[in-house]
Amino acid sequence: MAHACGRPPHPPPGTWQHGGVTAATHSTLFPQVPETPDAVLDGLDPEQREVALALHGPVCVLAGAGTGKTRAITHRIAYGVRAGILQPATVLAVTFTNRAAGEMRGRLRQLGATGVQARTFHSAALRQLQYFWPKAVGGELPRLLERKVQLVAEAAARCELRLDRTELRDVTSEIEWAKVTQTVPADYAAAVAKAQRDAPRDPAVLSQIYSAYEQLKRDRSVIDFEDVLLLMVGILQDRGDIADHVRGQYQHFVVDEYQDVSPLQQRLLDLWVGDRDNLCVVGDASQTIYSFTGATPLHLLNFRTRHPGATVVKLVRDYRSTPQVVHLANGLLSQAHGKAADHRLELVSQRDKGPEPVYTEYGDEPTEAESTARRIRDLIAAGVPAGEIAVLYRVNSQSEVYEQALADAGVPYQLRGAERFFERAEVREAGTALRGAARAGRNDSLLDGAEDLASQVRAVLSTKGWTTRPPAGSGSVRDRWESLAALVRLAEDFETAKPGATLTDLVRELDERAAAQHAPTVQGVTLASLHAAKGLEWDAVFLVGLTEGMMPIAYAKTDEQVEEERRLLYVGITRARVHLSLSWALTRSPGGRGGRKPTRFLNGLRPGSTGSGARRGVGGGGGIDRGTGRAATAERTPAVERKPRSPVRCRVCGRTLTDAGEMKLMRCEECPSDMDEALYERLHDWRAGQAARLGQPDYCVFTEKTLMAIAEAVPSTERELVVIAGVGNRKLSRFGADVLAICAGETVGDGPEEGPARPEKNSSRK
Question: Contact at 8 Å (CB) between 253 and 269?
Fold first, then answer.
């Protein structure tokens, strides 16, 4: 029988069929270290067990959301180490975030496999670079540039450009993309065109900024994070002796989240591995959501082609989510297109039935936020811990209205993406106080009357702001209390798991957790973007703001970009264990014109909607394929593949468009318009003035359909304007400055007495 929070009670030990398999994430409890190597395998399902036992040769694990991939690979490493098959120091496990690496180290420690290196790509490469730099180059390694934005701003200034904060962020990201795809400044423009990538500014201009940025780094003897990988690749390519040294150190490699690997990271991995085949990769193409950073799932999808004899294991048993949540996730992907969709995994829930997902339409965003906060308060009252609830949105700017609504409702919350737990000031202060109390022992009067460990910790932390009752409201005071409360709960769990443990033992545990970034759970509702939620899970998830233009995001133009947005929503859905809510608002502010539409991705899935239906004959269930020694014909990729022209689809309902006028509007005529009527009238008047001045019919400036499309899109940059059908580069250069000014609410000269419209030179517009 499920608890009030929706979680099943802890099952007794047993085989995987009888409840021995646990959810994908760890708890704050302290499990006993398995006594024997075989005990490490207890509780694994057949496919997870196959992963754990496949310790030789190339192994590819295709793991769906919630199927226990981290559990499988950490048990694989731990079993190999505990059985004496793998030497801890020869194993290198790499992933993409410090949090994921910390979690992996924490799990390995709990399984008794200490000494294994679990790091991010950058951390592993930096460690090697620091060690080998004196031998390979001589002298000290150049200083690592922690943040490159300021240097990018200086590089832009050298090119006589002034970038605002948003442009700086976009240009910085573009430089990072160029570097991880191993593109030098001179080749950047061609690479952008080949990748069909929307650059934030003219590629030629970006190439100049990129070149100036690289020169500034050389002038100041600094390197950035991408340089760490590039330099290590260069050293391993040029110095065979150093490459041999690294390969002698590391004999076995494990790569988590392999669908997110960039070309540069793949090149580094190839150099680490050399001509050996002890490589295990784990990933899910349906969770590829970072292509804008250079990540590509092709390395995962083509793994069998590169390694014909590889063992391929598919994990599809979902231990995280209820059948209702899994059904929606499968339905969402069944409508997907592209190579990643062709390799989708059909998840099978292993949990008891739960509530159906809730779909809610609101009149405006404040109402959506207030209602969400009330529902969260009700869930907490029903027994769901605040720390097991999340509100997920597409962009960070959406968080403010939810912060206010939760604060008004008296619900504690935390913003995902803030500083790491053990780096918080109050946590460092608490650690110092606990360390001092441990040294003083019974000589510390603060501990008088505190007989057990948990009581001692509560006594010490009470001097730092912890109380038995949380403070009212939100803000920094509440954040501080939540951090200290997490340490109190950790102490209680530690004492339960290790009766008789002392304050000194707890301090040692905290030090080990800090080194591994193995943080305890903070009890507050999580507010996070969908990207930041990757790899996490909660009992209850609220997916908010699911409107066209936000999901998919307005700048997702190509089929590939739209499909990535679908995968992003899939990631959001699969974060939920039991309760899932999906909502959208018809307008931003109360009293606004309600022209918004719910995301097309829910068409055919939410009650009362229609859609194109599921694709047939793709995807697959779980299983094990130990390889035949040669690549399967179906997995071979042709050397040259001509891409068919993509159909134009309605941005509202998703129907394929054939009428020229509809294609210009990017929607069906009968689908509702979200056109800004006042903007349309201003554009109409401006067009009349321009046509009179030029002595041409109105439609020679812009057609009615193009004016309507502009008034619906409300572009703020040249990049957003030029992609509107009927604009193009010629009209952009002739009328673009005026149109963008009108869209921004500015007044422009549009009568016959005015001269030709001229775009500003070196404008700050993208």
Answer: yes
